[in-house]
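The freezer alarm interrupted the setup, so I double-checked each line after restarting. Inputs confirmed:
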Amino acid sequence: MRSLIKKGIATAVMTTSLAFGAQAASLKVAYDADPVSLDPHEQLSGATLQMSHLVFDPLIRWNKDHSFEPRLAEKWQRVDDRKVRFHLRKGIKFHSGNPLTAKDVKWTFERLKSSPDFKAVFEPFTYIEVLDDHTFLLVTKEAYPLTLNAATYLFPMDSVYYSGKDEKGQPKDQLKKHGNTFASRNPSGTGPYTVSYRQQGVKVEFRRNENYWDKESKGNVDMITLTPIKENPTRVAALLSGDVDFIFPVPPTDHSRIERNTATDLVTLPGTRIIQLQLNQNRVEAFKDKRVRQAVAYAINNEAIVKRIMRGFATAAGQQGPEGYDGYVEDLAPRYDLKKARQLMKEAGYEKGFRISMIAPNNRYINDEKIAQAVAGMLAKINIKVDLKTMPKAQYWPEFDKRVADIQMIGWHSDTEDSANFTEYLAACPDEETGRGQYNSGGYCNPKVDKLLADANKETNLLLRTKLLQEVEEILYEDAAFIPLHWQNLAWGAKKEVNIADVVNVMNFPYLGDLVIEE
Amino acid sequence: MLLFLARRLIQGLLVMLVISFISFAIQDNLGDPLREMVGQSVSEAERQQLRDELGLNDPFLVQYGRFMAKAVQGDLGTSYFFKEPALDVILGKLPATLELVFGATLLIIVLSIPAGVYCAIHPQSWFSKAILGWSILGISIPVFLTAILLIYVFSIELGWLPSYGRGEVDLIFGSWESGFFNKDGLLHLVLPCISLASIMLPLFIRLIRSEMVEALHTEYVKFAKAKGLKLTRIYYLHALKNTMLPVITVGGVQIGTMVAYTILTESVFQWPGMGFMFLEAVNRVDAPLIVAYLIVVGAIFVIVNTLVDLIYGLINPTVRLAGKSA
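Predicted 3D structure, all chains:
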């Protein structure tokens, strides 16, 4: 069976390479994970979205300069505060041959609303109104500025293909975690690739969709083989030995090796994932005092952590949202001043310090354990003695949720690529009903921040909105609501002839459909 | 003989029952499987609901009872990640692991017997000293390091051998895909097999050497020498035969242990076997798969031990199996 498939692919590749001339190329990719499912709505994770960008197409997608690029939607206009009208490209067909219409978009939207993972992104939206086959309105409950951000998550699925029952009598559109559903095995999208072979956890093979609508794309890769390689050294070795063409992630220790190698290139981008520490005010009386929190911020040397532990592979942070995001304020730089820190501790009456507990994961973020140890050492200088405990991520998150320690580490990437998302989850007053502040283990609560956040989420005038979000960042900085450490950078490694620099982005969804491999 | 087997079977079942209970009891401490299944912004209420659907909120004994009821029918649960019955997943990964162990065993046999015998016959030669010195080094270097070193030298620097995975495989029978029948598959086997063999090879060389040294001091060897038999015949026929007895017992059990050692080797080489699968399952908190793996490995140990006992009884009639009547 296996070799039959292989032969089939080999013939197919031969015919396509004849059609494409000498241009066609194949690409072997090694990531640290492969997609859990071929159902784009089963899990909101990097691997799923990477798959979605190969097999499906979004309505619009992010450009490198943080603007939007038309994909299946060729243009759009804001009708009013609640409605945006999208115009679909005409003549696009799914892999099954069915034509793409606004009905498919509506169907996909409704399925997203039922997905436990994606419903949070689409929570502000109420419905899609189909105007005709290629026009529809995306409508929100209230005025909402981030309609386009959410539209990057809308990868239309083939509603006709997913209708009916499969051989097990289950509906084909069933959305269930670890359910081995029809949709998790059989995708039909509009994307540049189809899945020709898949063995979970071992290999996925993608073949170029010959009827792909984007004829302007210069992409010349007609075959992609994705192999997950978990171990960092093995993944790097696979690239250096030429067994694969493209890898992610590259651990900081191996950057110079890949750069030095004459056959490979290293491409890095400043990342958007903030690593921060939350100081629990409900557990530690001293953390209720703003001066103590500020003292902690002054005592921790972010730049040194970036330089020594991250080997320069991160951007030291003084706020949550990175540069390029709406709320970014240039003046909010990382603060480090040991003298000032000691003085603040003295003013607050804690000159002699105190003892606290701290937890951090040891296999979730780059060098997470080492960072935590460094922080513990730095806090000792202002007489805060830290009992540090680190653990694997599988055990860490339940502990994090229980708020078992006085300082807890967390990294956060904004699903909407927008500043407000950080505050919503990490710094808003914790509220179980709305889910606000779900990961705010510090218990920081400032009604003014919540008010500004609520206003920002309704403000469709983006200039005014930026002002509101910047004010939030300024207040959080002044209050030392949490201790931002740095934004993790991203690094890919590839053979020289593979032009990955053109297709990678900070979200880490490489647009491999547009990848060019030189002869 | 039959009684012996029956007893072993009951013991084996008991062992597996205990394993299942223990592994089931610790699964709560492995972490929260939901965290690995959902995105970060999924609300706590949603997660609770999913936990309910998975039956993770039921009391321990209820969950264990439900598990056992299915287990006696051969259903060890469904893997969260692979979405297939855990036993099927493991059996699907078993060939890759067994081939790795088989390759490593071949290497060990081919290398350890001549090396061990040579060291016993020529204790003073510099070559023997080199072998023994190396074996100390070999036994103290962790397999992880050996593997990385091998990859560095043979894949990156020399470019002779592939650095990861199984390469091309052929379907031989049933669902058994083998890498032993084509060049690409064989090349992919070389480095992982050497790494895995490197753990056991020093042990076997030393074992064979010391057994051989002992055999060489026995009366019958001295007598054979006095009688004027050819030395090679004495060494490789008479002495070696008696050397192999203890080697088979120890060796058999050690090779069983090797199935467990594959966890490290497989994860370095991204070898799609069950050792790597287990490590991944732990990272993903794929509890049903973890429990099933422990039970299967327990079963392998019991089977290997039983086989070794049987073989030993066959080749050394002075050993009596418990309750042996035939």
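Quick read of the result. Chain A touches chain B through 54 residues (CB under 8 Å).
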